[in-house]
Amino acid sequence: YPSILKTCIRLGDLELGEQIHCQIVKTSFQLNAYVCSVLIDMYSKLGKLDTAKDILVRFAGKDVVSWTTMIAGYTQYNFNDKALTTFRQMLDLGIRSDEVGLTNAISACAGLQSLKEGQQIHA
C-alpha cells in the first residue's frame, strides 16, 4: 500500500488515495508506523491536514517520522502555529526530534518571525 499511496501523492490524486486508505481499513491491514507516516504524508501534501492529524493522534504513537511528517505538512501550508504546537506535543510525549523535525520547527518559527522561540529550539 505505501508505494501506491506515494504514487497518489505524485499524481496529486486525493480521491484515489482516499480509496486506497478505505481499502487498508476494509482489509484490516496492519497500520504500522511506516504506513501511518505515508498516510500522514499523503493527506498533508494533498491538503487534508485535519485527516492527517487524526491519523497521527489515533495511530502513530511515538513514531518520530510520523510526527515530523505532520509538522512538515503544517509548515508547507504556512500553518506555523499548528506546526509548533505539534512539535511541542511530540516533545511532551518524550519523542526526540530528528533533524527533519528541528528544521521544520525552526522554519515555522521563521514564518512566525519568532526569533526567540527559534533560538530555544536550536539550543
UniProtKB/TrEMBL annotation:
Keywords: Repeat. GO terms for biological process: RNA modification. It comes from the Eukaryota. Transmembrane segments: none annotated. Coiled coil: none annotated. Pfam families: PPR, PPR_2. One of its GO terms (molecular function) is RNA binding. PPR repeats lie at residues 63-97. Gene3D superfamilies: Tetratricopeptide repeat domain. This is Pentatricopeptide repeat-containing protein.
